[in-house]
Amino acid sequence: MAEKLMKYADAVKKFDPVIGLETHVELSTTTKLFCPAEVHFGGEPNTQLTPVSLGLPGSLPVVNKTAVDYAIKLGLALHCEIAEWSQFARKNYFYPDMPRDYQISQYDKPTNGNGYLDVELEDGTIFRVPIERAHIEDDAGKNTHVGGADGRIEGADHSLVDYNRAGVPLIEIVTKPIEGAGDRAPEIAGAYMRAIRDIVRALNISHARMEQGNMRADVNVSLRNSPSDPFGTRSETKNVNSFRGIEKTIQYEIRRQAAILSEGGEILQETRHWDEASQTTAGGRVKSDADDYRYFPDPDLVMLHITKEHIEEMKAQMPEMPRERRNRLKGEWGFNDLEMRDVLNADALDLLEDTVKAGASASGAKKWWLGELSREANNKGVSLEELPITPADVAEVEKLIADGKLNDKLAKQTVAGVLAGEGTPDEVVKKHGFQVVSDDGALEKAVDEALAANPDIVEKLKSGNMKPMGAIIGAVMRATRGQADAKAVTKIVMGKIK
């Protein structure tokens, strides 16, 4: 049965939304957090295992130093206080994809705490998101439900468990309650998540591919009558794995909770699940409080001691942060705010930078990635980086244009050939015989024929009306099978009508 919803504009006018995000970032280490089992996406189920990741009796965990270093770098990027002494704890609960029946996490002594992240919104506004902690923990395995719709547990007749992911290192970034967001709460959450994604990629500590589950978020939403009132009861929508899904989850929960509260009802503190197909959240289980997990220090792991000297070592390895990089590239490329925003919205910054490094102009790279290639990606339902064309390929096409070997039409056909798997741009050009007609005699003949067939256009051109020039160029293009150079045609025409 469909839940009652209040219009979003009315909901945020009547209530003050408070949101919180718990972002799980899967680290790109080669081995798991507490054992030497290999980590790679897409392996055969239950092949990346050791006695530790299976929780077998007598197996003992050993901390992955690289994972700790990655956590320190992320803490620095999020302006956190990095604890000299931090501790792992056991978080006790039963779930079939957690073979030990407890998760090794951090509780009252996390590695990183009390930080913040400034995020830039669409209109250039900077909003500061407060960070409570960024702690280290290991991931659970993965349940696959068989027999139900869309792999969901509803209607399934049995479930399969893959423990490959069990023990993979995670950092969970927990915000403090985000207040003052108002009607921009969904936008702020989306901008924050994109900023986290950009940071962990810049640090090279995670692939941050949301569609592969190595970055996901639990989304907390509550409403109160005014900013001076205590926080309302929150819902927590689990494991949302798309930026758009996070924004839509917050919008839906604000509308749902506002409708309940307006009718005098009470919000149930529960976990919920986002359904992409119906664009709704659905109730799960009653939400547990921290006390219910019976945290206690893991007796098999000693405390982590992070010295000031080691923190300085990590600081020396920190790369340029995304916001500073964006501002630098914007200046180097000569883009205005709108052009740079288009690049960021298309998630094409890395692709443009690599294309420019390969020899293309910034404007040329932008034209291809945000034009022809963006349309191709949308048609196929994939990201730009998943297209079978590289920045080097795009730069090569741009060079062929600059050298006068391809015109725009031939360049598009060349790109289509690369996307179809026909090889590099140079190989596609040779295979199809793409070549701009540069022989003056052949072009002149085609121009003469076009002018002779269109005397009315010739008179308009002679009178100074240049609008019909496109018709002459089009006729020449047809005569040369699209292989004429438009600038050369224009030059020849102008010479003949004087």
From TrEMBL:
Q: The Asn/Gln amidotransferase domain covers which part of the protein?
A: 350-497
* The UniProt record lists the keyword Protein biosynthesis: yes
User: Coiled-coil stretches, from where to where?
Assistant: none
What is an example of a GO molecular function annotated in this UniProt entry? Answer: asparaginyl-tRNA synthase (glutamine-hydrolyzing) activity
Instruction: List the catalytic activities from the record.
Output: L-glutamyl-tRNA(Gln) + L-glutamine + ATP + H2O = L-glutaminyl-tRNA(Gln) + L-glutamate + ADP + phosphate + H(+); L-aspartyl-tRNA(Asn) + L-glutamine + ATP + H2O = L-asparaginyl-tRNA(Asn) + L-glutamate + ADP + phosphate + 2 H(+)
The family database entries (SUPFAM superfamilies) matched by this protein are listed as:
GatB/YqeY motif, Glutamine synthetase/guanido kinase
Q: What is its EC number?
A: 6.3.5.-
User: What GO biological process terms are annotated to this protein in UniProt?
Assistant: glutaminyl-tRNAGln biosynthesis via transamidation; translation
- Keywords annotated in UniProt: ATP-binding, Ligase, Nucleotide-binding, Protein biosynthesis, Transferase
Pfam entry (one): GatB_Yqey
Report the top EC class in one word: ligase
- Give the source's domain of life in one word: Bacteria
Tell me if ATP-binding is a UniProt keyword of this record.
yes
HAMAP family from the xrefs? Answer: GatB (MF_00121)
Question: Family per UniProt?
Answer: Belongs to the GatB/GatE family. GatB subfamily.
User: Its biological function?
Assistant: Allows the formation of correctly charged Asn-tRNA(Asn) or Gln-tRNA(Gln) through the transamidation of misacylated Asp-tRNA(Asn) or Glu-tRNA(Gln) in organisms which lack either or both of asparaginyl-tRNA or glutaminyl-tRNA synthetases. The reaction takes place in the presence of glutamine and ATP through an activated phospho-Asp-tRNA(Asn) or phospho-Glu-tRNA(Gln).
**Quaternary structure and partners:** Heterotrimer of A, B and C subunits.
Database matches in NCBIfam families:
gatB, PRK05477.1-2, PRK05477.1-3, PRK05477.1-4
Report the protein name in the record. Answer: Aspartyl/glutamyl-tRNA(Asn/Gln) amidotransferase subunit B
Q: Native species of this protein? A: Bifidobacterium ruminantium
Taxonomic placement: Bacteria, Bacillati, Actinomycetota, Actinomycetes, Bifidobacteriales
